[in-house]
Amino acid sequence: MDALEVFFEQDLLSRCRGKLLLPKEIEESVEEFKRMKKRIATLNGSFDLLHAGHLEILDQAAMQGDLLIVALNSDASIQKYKSPKRPIIPLKYRLQMMSSLVMVDYVTWFEETDPRELLKKIRPHVHVNGAEYGENCIEKEVVEAGGGRVHLVSLVPGLSTTAMIKKIQCD
Question: Which of 167, 142, 135, 147 is nearest to 71 (CA)?
Answer without folding.
Answer: 142
